[in-house]
Q: What sequence folds into this?
């Protein structure tokens, strides 16, 4: 792995630790950088809600978002096991895990994934979610897992730091805000996909690019798109690249 790229990624993530950073945009940046740096097919982030249930809050593409949802709906898979145990789950060959997670493995293989690594997002004994990396077999080696866990740890600190800056009484208050924002963003993606004749990944890129270009929070822009008070049609021609 290129050490300069890795250092730049950590600096970029650390620079997001400010009082008013956008949690959803930060976690999407995390999934993008993990996918790029570790040569993954896709990456997702799950966070726990106030009821103790996991929710999908960020994904590097629409395919893995749907796979994460499938995992939650069927109550089986490495990400759930990782969250519940607070321990890393590394499956280098998914076919070997079919007896353990039959429905998840079948769907993941159908989507073209052959290996998965799920890493806990935790601070001491508090587990707030999981970072999940999908790839062809044989997946990540131990050195890359250590790097991915370090990135997950940075993200955990970022989420908890944001909660502290908001002076929330408990972490679930901040997490619920992020989850509510995710719902708005998914709705806005659907509106843009229909309005601009885009697929869901293109709709999100357009939404995120417009938010960054105009220095707006994703959730605020999503709310405006849903309400019909913000027309993003011109943004389609010049979306902000993911690498920015």
A:
């Amino acid at each position: 792995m290129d050490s300069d790229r890795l250092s730049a990624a950590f600096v970029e993530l650390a620079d997001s630790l400010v009082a008013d950073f956008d949690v959803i945009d930060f976690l999407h940046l995390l999934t993008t950088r993990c996918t790029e740096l570790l040569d993954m097919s896709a990456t997702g982030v799950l966070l726990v809600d106030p009821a103790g249930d996991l929710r999908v809050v960020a994904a590097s593409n629409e395919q893995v978002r749907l796979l994460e949802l499938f995992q939650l709906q069927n109550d089986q898979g490495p990400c759930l096991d990782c969250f519940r145990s607070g321990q890393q789950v590394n499956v280098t060959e998914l076919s070997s895990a079919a007896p353990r997670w039959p429905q998840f493995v079948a769907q993941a293989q159908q989507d073209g994934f052959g290996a998965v690594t799920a890493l806990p997002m935790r601070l001491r004994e508090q587990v707030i979610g999981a970072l999940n990396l999908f790839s062809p077999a044989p997946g990540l080696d131990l050195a890359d897992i250590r790097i991915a866990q370090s990135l997950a740890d940075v993200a955990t600190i970022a989420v908890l730091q944001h909660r502290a800056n908001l002076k929330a009484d408990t972490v679930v208050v901040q997490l619920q805000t992020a989850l509510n924002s995710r719902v708005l963003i998914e709705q806005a993606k659907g509106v843009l996909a229909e309005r601009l004749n885009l697929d869901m990944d293109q709709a999100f890129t357009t939404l995120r690019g417009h938010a960054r270009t105009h220095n707006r929070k994703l959730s605020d822009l999503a709310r405006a798109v849903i309400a019909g008070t913000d027309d993003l049609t011109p943004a389609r021609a010049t979306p902000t690249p993911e690498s920015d």
In short: The first strand starts at residue 42 and ends at 48. Strands lie at 42-48, 54-59, 89-91, 115-123, 126-135. Residues 3-167 form a domain with the Beta-Lactamase fold (CATH 3.30.450.40).
